[in-house]
Amino acid sequence: MSCIFCAIVAGKAPAAVVWEDEETLAFMDINPVSQGHVLVVPKEHYRNLYDIDPESAAAVMRTTVRVARAVREALRPDGMNLFQSSERAAFQSVFHFHVHIIPRWFGDELRLPPQVQRTDFSVLQEIAARIRERL
Ligand code: 5GP
Ligand code: ZN
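Above: the input record for the complex with zinc ion. Below: its predicted structure, written as C-alpha cells.
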C-alpha cells in the first residue's frame, strides 16, 4: 500500500490511535512538533483540500474538535493550533488529507512565519472579487 495513512487506517501500519469512528481516525504524529501532536484523517483517501468531499472534511473537523478538547483536558496546554497543508508549497509531505492538532505552551520552540505583507485595501477588494466570482 503506497499511502502510509491508508495503511494506518487499514491496520497494516502501526499507530497510536486516540479516536476512530466510521469516517475518521485520529492518531499521534510520529514526529511531534509538540507533546500531544495529533493527526486527524478521513478513512477514505483524498490527496488534500483540492479533492476532499466537503462532507468528509466536515467529519474530520467534528473529530478534530472532539479530540482537541480531550488533548486540552489531558495535557493542559496554554493554547492550540490547527494546521492543514495542501501541496508541497504549503509543506504537505503526506498526500492523504490530514489536520494537525498542535498543543501550544507559552515559551515553546514552535515558530510560525511572522512576516505580514502590508497591502492596500483596494488590493484586498480586488482579490476578494476574484474569489467571490468563483463561489
Ligand atoms: P504534512 O507535512 O503533510 O502536513 O504532515 C505529515 C505529518 O505526518 C508529519 O507531521 C509527519 O511527522 C507525520 N507522519 C509521517 N509519516 C507518519 C507515520 O508513519 N505515522 C505517523 N503517526 N505520522 C507520520
Ligand atoms: Zn491514503
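Notes for the reader.
The beta strands are 17-20, 24-28, 38-42, 79-83, 99-104.
The chain has a mean pLDDT of 96.
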